[in-house]
Amino acid sequence: MSEARIKHVQCSSPAGLHRIAYKEWGDPANPRVLVCVHGVTRVADDFDALARDLSDTYRVVCPDVAGRGRSDRLRDPQLYAVPQYVADMVTLIARVTANNEDAQVDWFGTSMGGLIGMVLASLPGTPIAKLVLNDIGPVLDGGALRRIADYIGQDLHFPDFASGARFVRDVSTSFGPHSDDEWHKLAADVLRQAPNGEWVRHYDLALAEPFKAVSAERAELDQAALWRAFDAIRCPTLLVRGELSDLLSHATAQEMATRGPRPRLVEIPGVGHAPTFVHADQIALARAFLLG
């Protein structure tokens, strides 16, 4: 079993340079690379269990997307959007495959990480060979998006870790059943202690700004663009949906199964948005697809 290494890569935006942190598991010379990208307010540490399991076969690379965790905040909050994230991931992939022309890159994306993977996999010359979309698709429920936007922008401070952990658990019940130790880790990964001793969430609150700026017309245009991207994907794709998800509807998942890459669709019972892939049965599902 390998342990993670924390590394950084410098990326560029119209507002300047920023560093993206990533956790790397497995043999750094392995040409088989799996990039795992988290949801909108989560971090690279979400994939610790999955990465440990797959590091016998893959070099697993798990970035903190800009504005989260160990990565830099962006100077212009309006750049917190998929185009910038895709550009950063292209830079990251170029870094981790620089010494191996035969590298194969597979992608596991949860929620926002799936949107980034969807767009990257749709591009001509994409490096993505296999794609896992975890509870995400081109159609995003408006109510769920408003809930996420409200949640992101709350400037919350907790007097101690236990208070913050209770909050994370309460707002993450859709992840499904987890043990107390698993809930503790899910909270510890996204909380940090401020200099005044309070505990806060480990991301830039300005992530909420682009959500607030989206009009109904813009949302329709974005949805059409995401369907075009999905329809352009040609690599083998696995679509995972939490049975109780309010972000990816059953109808949308069924439509996705008939379009674009015609992914294999698996629904996980008793789970909403989004499956965490910390449990053995979920990890086995990912392993079977990626290595099959």
Task: Compile the SSE list and pairings.
Blueprint (H helix, E strand, L loop, with lengths): L4 E9 L2 E10 L6 E6 L10 H7 L4 E5 L18 H15 L7 E7 L1 H11 L5 E7 L7 H11 L8 H11 L8 H9 L2 E3 L5 E3 L6 H5 L3 H17 L4 E6 L7 H7 L7 E5 L11 H12 L1
Parallel strand pairs: 3-4, 3-5, 5-6, 6-9, 9-10
Antiparallel strand pairs: 1-2, 2-4, 7-8
Helix pairs in contact: 2-3, 3-8, 5-6
Number of strands: 10
Instruction: Give the biggest sheet.
Output: 8 strands, mixed
Query: What is the residue-averaged pLDDT?
Result: 95
N-to-C span: 21 Å
Radius of gyration: 18 Å
**Proportion of beta-strand residues:** 15-25%
Report on this model:
The chain is α/β, with parallel strands linked by helices and 292 residues long. It has helices spanning 48-54, 82-96, 112-122, 142-152, 161-171, 180-188, 208-212, 216-232, 250-256, 280-291; strands at 5-13, 16-25, 32-37, 59-63, 104-110, 128-134, 191-193, 199-201, 237-242, 264-268. The strands form two sheets. Strands 1-2-4-3-5-6-9-10 form an eight-stranded mixed β-sheet, sandwiched between helices. A two-stranded antiparallel ribbon has the order 7-8. It is globular and about 50 Å long.
